[in-house]
From TrEMBL:
PANTHER family: GLYOXALASE FAMILY PROTEIN, GLYOXALASE-RELATED. This is Dioxygenase. GO terms for molecular function: dioxygenase activity. Pfam families: Glyoxalase. The keyword Oxidoreductase applies. It comes from Modestobacter caceresii. It comes from the Bacteria. The keyword Oxidoreductase applies. Keywords: Dioxygenase, Oxidoreductase. Residues 1-106 form the VOC domain.
Amino acid sequence: MWVPVTDMDRARAFYRDTLGLSEGKTTEDWSEFDANGLMIGLNARESAQPASGGAVITFQPDGDLDAEVAALQDKGVEFGGIADHPWGRLAPFRDSEGNDLQFYAPPS
């Protein structure tokens, strides 16, 4: 899965420093991050801006969902709340470039 980015340095800092994901291959136009087994590519070659209603990248946080949300809120990340469903929990947010992301936690 890849997402468009406007500012590669800002996007890399968000995924690496704010989300704490492991950074892989990095070039001026492309960077890869491991989101708990899901590879996310940051693509600066695409000029398309994210739009509401587009693709959403969903991945599991390394730790407890509530703790991860609280830690990221302390770093300035805004969440749309946590939704509880019979099939799991979702916590939607946006990256530094406006792309839609969400944490997922399976039911306990």
